[in-house]
Amino acid sequence: MCGIMGFSGGYSRGFSENLNGKSSVDIVLNGLKSLEYRGYDSSGIAYYDRSGKKIKCIKKSGKLVNLSTEFSCIKPVKSDIAIGHIRWATHGKPTDDNAHPHMDCSGNIAIVHNGIIENYAVLKSRLIKKGHKFITPTDSEVIAHLIEDNINEGKTFYEAVRLSAMELSGAFAVLVLNAAEKSIAAVKYGPPLVMVHKGGEVYFASDVSPLIEYSDEVIYLKNSEIAYFHDGILELTNFKGKKTAKTVTKIDWDASRAVKTGFSHFMQKEIFEQPSCLLDAFSSRVISVNGRNAGEDGSRLKNKIKDSFSGFKIMLEDVKLTKKDLADASRIVITACGSSYYAGLAVKYMAESICGIPVIVEYGSEFRYENFPISKNDIFIGISQSGETADTNSALELAKAARAGIISITNVPGSQITAMSDKGVIYTHAGPEIGVASTKAFTTQLLCGLLLALRIREIKGYIPSGENIDGLKIFNDMVELPKKVEQILFMDEAIKETAKKYYKNSNFLYLGRGILYPIALEGALKLKEISYIHAEGYPAGEMKHGPIALVDENMPVLFLLSNNMLAPKTISNIEEIKARGGKIIAVADYEPEIDGVSDLIKIPETSEVLSPILYTIPLQLLAYHIAALKGTDIDQPRNLAKSVTVE
Ligand code: AGP
Fold it and tell me: pTM (2 decimals)?
């Protein structure tokens, strides 16, 4: 959605020399660069200028480089307290004026805000009646004037912030800069807000990526919490003014993972990180019968496995499901959005075949407004890379209110979704995913969903299921997975050649059956969101019920084909498309006996429940190369943001 960043070097002690000569503006500008993937249609910084003894505010529409250029044209700034913002517009066009920070009437207060103020209109009309002058149509500007109004009524700055926070409704992560006190306050309700407090300095940000260069120990502000930093002193309270404990979380991300290191785009780097991310996702969680973990040399482990079902144990320490929970549960409900929703669809296939439990998968944005009869015996799984997607979290709030158990699969420790997950959190351990298009987060979500399904099967004991799950093969194939992903990545140049044939097309169809149908949806989304080419994913068997009317010689149709019982059906679907002149691209784990396929992308074979991971990789590469040939902004596609923390 948006990104906010703030810094204070304890102004009252004079200019903080421990900034190594860097001003607070440099620190905040650098931080905004790490947050640019969250939104990039305008940006701005407000700082306390020591010489002028007042707040100065510079903001620009367009990319962050426009703001950096603006600062490079003025004399070096001497300041050690600043706040900054990078925007994905919700209210008001992305113009210079509508960019954050927003000021009050007096120039004493500047604010930056991530989220949405739902009652801003009522507050704004009241404040206008009291004489406040608004400059923009944005919801966020109300916050600055509300705080000012409370100060005008005799409240201290902290009290003014606290009372204002209690009056706001909606979602808000806010940083407030106060010129009179030279202090900074942070307010969190909904969207994430993380801080580092060390050596008499505080750093605030929307997520850890701008903070990991300063410390690997962070504080995730909780909902209804305020951090107030003045005269080098940090105070943490809730909205009622009660002191709250400072909980420090250690981050296992190193700063190096948040840079491109030789790749052309973050998305490309993150596609190529997948072998190691997948290994990180399972290696310490799959223990063979002799207690060795699968991450070690898998070949040495394989021949030591005796157990009939699997020979390995799934270690998901945080998952607190009991045999009784599973006996009482008549179903599993998965809720998510975008790529995470497609991961949920694939996990449905895995869980139903491995655990024998019916699984329902719901878009978060739909679920929250349906009359879905939630039972306290339901097991909910929330899947979210950021852990901050408003639609997903709001859907889970309904499950929580109905006392259903919640497990989440997420990539961000301390994110909002983790606070709701009473039955446990499974971290994907993918590291920071900077590219807006989900890649390594998606494939590690698939793997974590499979691990959860296997764990549920262990807790339930034997499952009378139609398909005998060969746990031993799954284990062996899981150990081989990183290597097989690497084999596909070695096909990058060949896939780039395929992309050259299709990047000028304006439509695409992606077709798959069974567990590969969700991957057809994901492949279409990857192409849409980074190349802006219209693409649709469909169940291959569904084409004859209408969509086949779209097919002609200008329609490339990409089939996901696996050598299983569905193969003959999919082959028939390919013939149907061929008969109508469609261009066929096939991604297959065998050599299909069919002519007229324009392009065949052959990938290694694996267990069916692991196949969605392998089939996703060539689709990521194809979308990447088509977008690169089209010259679109791959890491920051138009209109998108990495984490949609509003409805
Ligand atoms: C995926 O490429 C998209 N960027 C988007 O669909 C994303 O998956 C969706 O917004 C959900 O985000 P989350 O996983 O952080 O909840």
Answer: 0.75
